[in-house]
Amino acid sequence: MNSSIRHRTLLKKSGIVCGLAVGATFAALALAGGGGLPVPTTLNDFALPGTQTGGLDVEHPIVGADTCASCHGFYDEVHDPYSTWSASMMGQSMRDPIFLAAMTIANQDADFAGALCIRCHAPSAFLEGRHVPTDASAISDIDMMGVSCNVCHRMVDPVYTPGTSPMIDESILMDLGSDAPTQDQSHSAAIVFDPMDRRRGPYDEGPNFFYHEWVQDPFIQDSRMCASCHDVSNPIFTAQPDGTYALNNLDEMHPTGNVYETFPEQRTYSEWLMSDFAQAPVAIGDRYETQLTEVSSCQDCHMPEVEAQACFFEDARPQYSTHSFSGANNWVLRAVRELNPNDFVTGLLPELVDQAIGRNEEMMRDASDMELSMVGGNLNVRIINQTGHKLPTGYPEGRRMWINVQFFDASDAIIAEHGAYDDMTAELTTADTKVYEMKIGLDAAMSVATGLPEGESFHLTLANKVFKDNRIPPRGFTNANFESIQSPVIGYSYADGQYWDDTQFVVPAGAVRADVKLRYQLTTKEYIEFLRDTNVTNSAGQDVYDQWVLHGKSPVIDMDVESMGITPPCVADLNGDGVLNFFDVSVFLNAYNGMDPIADLNGDGMFNFFDVSVFLNAYNAGCP
Question: For the whole prediction, is pTM greater than 0.85?
Answer without folding.
Answer: yes
